Amino acid sequence: MPTLSVPRPSDQLFQDPTPGSKLAPSLTSIFERYLRLGVSTGEPNTPIEVEILTRAIETGNISALDYERAYAEFQSCMVEHGIDLPWNKGPDGVYYQPFMPKTLPFTDAQYTAALNVCQPVMDAIQIPYQIQQDNPDLLANQPEAIVACLRRHGLVDASYTPEQFDHDWAYGRGAGLPQFPFDPMDPVANACMASQYYGYFEAP
Which of 41, 63, 97, 178 is most enclosed, with most CB atoms within 10 A? Predict the structure, then answer.
């Protein structure tokens, strides 16, 4: 049975987006913003975040190797705190939190406690890397970014609009599941949605 998660703003550092608005003038400016402010709370970045973001500013991108290093450090921290639940790697090269069945050997509270400790290890890498991989146009409006991603991969044509996606998604919040003109469980389509925090899972 497919399961939906409620979308959330892609980044609390950015203002409420309107159609056509941009997250930033360039990807490098996003890296600079995260290096300067950290994520959401403005807390200092971890040493690995500083190292990776500094290099990204110099090269213009976060390398897959650097991203894997950040994820490995995050995952190691989670295991140290009793949570052995690897995230799923999408075809975009980004790791996404998996669907969490109730049969896991830890509680939601235990998972959240570990996440609060470990997520700062890679927070300032995760969101910029998602933007780099799935939103090269730096679109601030989430449905607009999803549709652009779907079009880029040939999963919908130019006639499919962000407004139609909004309508299709909203149907799943009411009487039934969304009726998309693409397969939402297709790995690429699923990553396009997940990169903007629209979670569509096949519950085990």
Answer: 178
Q: List the domain boundaries for the chain.
A: 1-23+138-204, 25-134
**C-alpha span between 129 and 3 (Å, rounded):** 25
Q: Which position has the token pair 């490995």?
A: 72
Classify residue 110 as left (phi > 0), alpha (psi -120 to 50) or beta.
Answer: alpha
> How many residues can be counted in the chain?
204
Collapsed DSSP state (helix, strand, coil) of residue 80: helix
Compute φ and ψ for 132, nearest 5 degrees. Answer: -60, -45
Please state the pTM of the whole predicted model.
0.83
Pairing state between β 95-96 and 88-89 = antiparallel
State the chain's mean pLDDT as an integer. 84
Find out whether 47 and 35 touch, Cβ atoms under 8 Å: no
- Token readout for 94 is 């980004």
> What are the tens digits of pLDDT across the range 28-76?
999 999 988 755 555 678 899 999 999 999 999 999 999 999 999 999 9
